[in-house]
Amino acid sequence: MRSRLLLAVFALVAVFGAAPASADPAPAASASDACFTWDRELSEGASGADVRQLQIRVAGYPGTGSVLALDGEYGPATKAAVNRFQDAYGLGGNGVANQATFDKIYALQDNDCTPVNFTYGELNGCNSNWSGGNVSAAEAKANALVSMWKLQAMRHAMGDQPIVVNGGFRSVACNDAVGGAPASRHLYGDAVDLGAGSQGFCALAQQAREHGFREILGPGYQGHDDHVHVAHRSSQFWSAPSCGI
Ligand SMILES: [Zn+2]
């Protein structure tokens, strides 16, 4: 009897000892990511490198005509961008970057930190190391990453249809070879040229206004009847007269 009782106790310990681990919703798995893992909830007033990483991921949700500062400070604009991101994915958020928000970001990003529907390769048909532009290779690549997150937001807003990327970063040599403007944003890595895709040029140019692109050039603007160019710059310059922009 005694041995059977001990066995029963051991069995109970085994069952209940193991239960918490197996019944746990595996926070370790959902909270880790090969690119970047947030280890705290973030809300207005927070600051730090993890805030800046969040800002890059929600850079495509700044509001019409706005650009989100990637300054590591969780102010009202970051809160609003997070709220728009949460709304876009039905997370029911309130502008606080909680675990559900981070989990959605993890689901949207590849191990190299690019959003799942865009690649560094697509954004650089010029060379393999991002060198030779108007900024360091690291800065050009970082700029391209931000543009990709803006495009990911735009893609989602347009029904998750593929967006055709025809080019991005150019070294000075690559820019000269295609007759690019001397101050082209392609030299900085943040410019992206879009093909018509299923959306069409005007729909792309119009939608881009919602996603943090200060530079939008499209049909009707010299040299842009066959693509839409989106980029970052210090002041807003949009021109696509054939599309009402
Ligand atoms: Zn361009």
Automatic annotation (TrEMBL):
Report the SUPFAM superfamilies cross-referenced here. Hedgehog/DD-peptidase, PGBD-like
Q: Any idea where the Peptidoglycan binding-like domain is?
A: 47-104
The positions making up the signal sequence are 1-23
Per the record, the domain of life is: Bacteria
UniProt KW keywords: Signal
Peptidase M15A C-terminal domain residues are: 117-231
Protein name (Swiss-Prot/TrEMBL): Peptidoglycan-binding protein
Organism taxonomic ancestry: Bacteria, Bacillati, Actinomycetota, Actinomycetes, Pseudonocardiales
